[in-house]
Write a structure and sequence with these properties.
Strand content of chain B: 5-15%
Largest sheet of chain A: 4 strands, mixed
Oligomer: heterotrimer
Radius of gyration of chain B: 23 Å
Largest interface: B-C, 67 and 68 residues
CATH architecture of chain A: 2-Layer Sandwich
Order of helices and strands of chain B: HHHHHHHHHHEHEHHEHEHEHHEHEHH
Structural class of chain A: alpha+beta
CATH class of chain A: Alpha Beta
Strand order of the largest sheet of chain A: 1-2-4-3
Low-confidence stretches of chain B: 340-356, 379-446
Number of domains of chain A: 1
Distance between the termini of chain B: 42 Å
CATH topology of chain A: Translation Initiation Factor IF3
Mean pLDDT of chain A: 88
Strand order of the largest sheet of chain B: 2-1-3-4
Number of helices of chain B: 20
Radius of gyration of chain A: 11 Å
CATH superfamily of chain A: TusA-like domain
Shape of chain B: globular
Helix content of chain B: 40-55%
Structural class of chain B: alpha/beta
Order of helices and strands of chain A: EHEHEE
Helix content of chain A: 25-40%
Number of strands of chain A: 4
């Protein structure tokens, strides 16, 4: 297990629900315990990504607004 | 029989009511529905004929219910449901039909093929073969309803940012985006994202509307799954919010399927607990213009513009004149397409899908061959179409025109304030049912 | 002769009873009650579904396939004329010659159009792909029924075949695809209810 993300993804310009769709696809590409980092511009991710991790059981390691326009989040595959 | 098949058949039986049995029995396989289907138009193959799609479910139904088919399955190509057939049915219902009802309207018998496709979707959902991502999105939405506190603070922060932008755009220091306003008249339900919050906020403020913004989004992935249980849970969030705030009306953003869900399905799921009027934002806009609550510039958009109806708003919702009324009031040169109602947006297909791309090319060709006016999509699903458009039409300025049917943006990407447009159009209560040039005969081209 | 006539009527009775059983079975199923507020007019929708909505110019599909649609209408007129002719067979001798003559031509034309439909199902790629053995059988059986009824009307030698083919056709109605004659009414009613309720059909003419 490493603290650095295994995958770094760019969801800029994607609108809801595409960030969730993309992260759900990407999570299958990493092993349990590995991290995915993503950056999005759709503010909807601030609600959708936590909701997705809650309903799927994965861990939301970080979620932050970066410069007023982009949102960064880090998700850990749990199962 | 495996558990999967048992669950699928049980779901079919549970849904087998009069309209579904009728749809399963009525088809004469005349094939006249072929050209009504966008998939067929894009790729003219027998498999893309709506009747052929429906036959795949009928063969399963016949095997279970038809005397002659049980005796001589070959006679009616009756088939016992197995994993392969279920996988094929799932593919057909989720990836080869947009439930636009264009085939139903064009069928001499009025066979409701989308009803059968919904039945398959429900079977697949019950059996666990439905697209995982839709299940995931529905469950995430339900999770938001269970405990909104985990994102509410962030949401309110974003709205505060949007309020700043709103004030910049309108130049009105008092302009606001009220959230959870007790006793407001309208509960406006957006899609997630600023593009369906900020432009309507401009209009609501200009019209001095007593409104409040929902903390939930209008999309309902339970509806896509034809999973009434999940769909109810997703909708319950907004039903509860509307009841809690005591609003009179729910206004749904541009999303066609969300409008269909709250306007036509939710009253059935929450009978006795749902006395709200449900309108699409487009109806509200038409009313504001007709009643003079907002003033718009009739030459605000100088380019020629045409309108591509959304299946959920038009064919399945009767919203034909309102969008045209709005467009004619803000567009200098509005032209109808012939045929003017291409229908089936919401192409929920994989982006790389050849067929979906061809569908959009077909639509695009139709548009281009008629003088090439800019096209306005009415439903959020249209964004799916936009993604499938050829790169030339995905240019940002074109995409904005496609995605934001009623709000033009200037170069900065900010919506123009409809109220700031001049001169005033003499609305004064004129009914938007009048003079919009819509001709019911055109619906035959649906 | 009488025995064959009785056989045809027995077939008719069996067919009607089978259709009634189908009707009763479908009616036993749940009928969902729509509680969403009505936008249009349900009864106008149903009226539209059975009248103007059936006109050849009302739909894109029937405009594209105008000939095929008119062929189908002619074929169906032939079918109903043939059923009426067989039912009225005890009274043929009182038919005015003009009626017999007209009826037989309607039947011949119906049979011709039926045969055209049968051939289209074999020759046309899409229709061939869609058609079940049941469809091929039904269209040729019905065509034969119309044809021998027309012949029976003008030539006594064909009366017995007419009764025999009639008995088979009537009996087959509830068993195979011909039962769409019952579901046509269900389907158009639901169509009218759905689109009428939602204010889609009939849509009021816009005032210019």
């Amino acid at each position: 297990m490493s603290d650095s993300p295994k995958l770094t993804l760019d969801f800029k310009g994607l609108l809801c629900p595409m960030p969730v769709v993309k992260i759900a696809q990407a999570i299958k590409q990493v092993q349990v315990g590995e991290l995915i980092e993503a950056v999005a511009t759709d503010p909807g991710v601030m609600a959708d990504i936590p909701a997705w991790t809650r309903s799927t059981g994965h861990e939301l390691v970080a979620l932050e607004k970066q410069d007023g326009k982009t949102f960064r989040f880090v998700v850990k595959r749990v199962k | 029989m495996t558990e999967t098949i048992e669950l699928a058949l049980k779901a079919l039986e549970a849904q087998l009511n009069q309209p579904l049995e009728t749809a399963l029995e009525a088809c004469a396989r005349c094939g006249i529905c072929a050209e009504a289907c966008h998939y067929y138009r894009a790729e003219p193959r027998v498999e893309h004929i709506p009747a052929h799609r429906a036959e795949q479910l009928r063969s399963v139904y016949r095997y279970e219910h038809d005397f002659l088919s049980r005796m001589f399955p070959v006679w009616t190509r009756a088939e016992k449901l197995d994993e392969t057939t279920l996988a094929n049915l799932t593919e057909i219902a989720f990836s080869q039909c947009t439930l636009c009802r264009r085939c139903t309207v064009n069928c001499p018998l009025g066979v409701d093929t989308p009803l059968m496709m919904r039945a398959i979707r429900a079977m697949a959902t019950a059996a666990g073969t439905a697209p995982e991502i839709l299940v995931m999105l529905a469950d995430a939405a339900i999770e938001k309803g269970n405990d909104p506190s985990f994102y509410k603070e962030m949401f309110l922060e974003q709205i505060a940012d949007m309020e700043k932008q709103l004030r910049e755009i309108t130049g009105d220091e008092n302009a606001g985006i009220p959230v959870e306003k007790q006793g407001a008249k309208i509960l406006y339900v957006p899609l997630a994202g600023a593009h369906t919050i900020l432009p309507p906020a401009v209009v609501f403020n200009a019209a001095k509307e007593d409104w409040t913004l929902s903390i939930f989004e209008a999309s309902n992935y339970g509806v896509f799954l034809a999973d009434v249980n999940r769909a109810r849970q997703v909708a319950k969030r907004i039903v509860d919010e509307a009841n809690r705030l005591g609003v009179k009306e729910i206004v749904i953003s541009e999303c066609g399927h969300a409008y269909a869900c709250y306007r036509w399905d939710v009253p059935n799921w929450f009978a006795g607990r749902f006395d709200f009027k449900v309108r699409s934002l487009i109806e509200v806009l038409a009313e504001y213009i007709a009643e003079g609550k907002i003033k718009v510039d009739p030459t605000g958009i100088p380019e020629s513009v045409t309108y591509h109806d959304s299946c959920n708003l038009a064919r399945n919702g009767g919203l034909l004149e309102e969008p045209r009324y709005v467009l004619k009031n803000i567009v200098g040169d509005f032209r109808e397409m012939t045929p003017n109602k291409a229908g089936a947006l919401s192409l929920r297909r994989r982006r790389r899908d050849r067929c979906a791309r061809r569908i959009c090319r077909t639509k695009n060709r139709r548009r281009q061959t008629q003088g090439g006016p800019n096209q306005k999509h009415r439903c959020a699903g249209g964004r799916c179409c936009v993604r499938e458009l050829p790169p030339a039409d995905r240019r940002p300025e074109r995409a904005l025109q496609l995605e934001r049917p009623c709000y033009r943006t200037d170069g900065s990407g900010r919506p123009r304030d409809a109220a700031a447009q001049t001169p005033a159009r003499g609305g004064g209560g004129a009914s938007f049912r009048r003079g919009t040039g819509w001709n019911s005969k055109d619906l035959g081209r649906v | 002769m009488l025995i064959f006539q009785l056989l045809a009527f027995a077939g008719l009775a069996a067919g009607l009873y089978g259709i009634y059983l189908r009707y009763a079975e479908t009616r036993r199923r749940a009928l969902p009650v729509d509680k969403s507020p009505v936008k249009g007019n349900i009864s106008h929708g149903i009226a539209y579904a059975f009248t103007t909505g059936m006109m050849p110019w009302a739909k894109e599909s029937t405009r594209i396939h105008l000939i095929a649609y008119l062929r189908g209408i002619g074929f169906h007129i032939g079918i109903f004329a043939a059923i009426g002719t067989v039912i009225l067979s005890p009274f043929w001798e009182w038919f005015p010659p003009l009626l017999s003559w007209t009826l037989s031509w309607v039947l011949f034309l119906g049979a011709l159009l039926g045969a055209a439909g049968g051939l289209m199902r074999i020759a046309e790629h899409n229709l061939r792909g869609l058609s079940l053995p049941d469809d091929h059988f039904a269209v040729w059986l019905t065509t034969l029924f119309i044809a021998v009824t027309g012949l029976g009307l003008v030539n006594e030698a064909f009366v017995v075949p007419m009764y025999l083919v009639g008995a088979v056709t009537f009996t087959y109605v509830p068993l195979g695809k011909i039962r769409h004659c019952l579901y046509f009414f269900f389907s158009r009613t639901f169509f009218g209810k759905f689109f009428g309720r939602r204010g889609v059909f009939p849509h009021p003419e816009a005032v210019q």
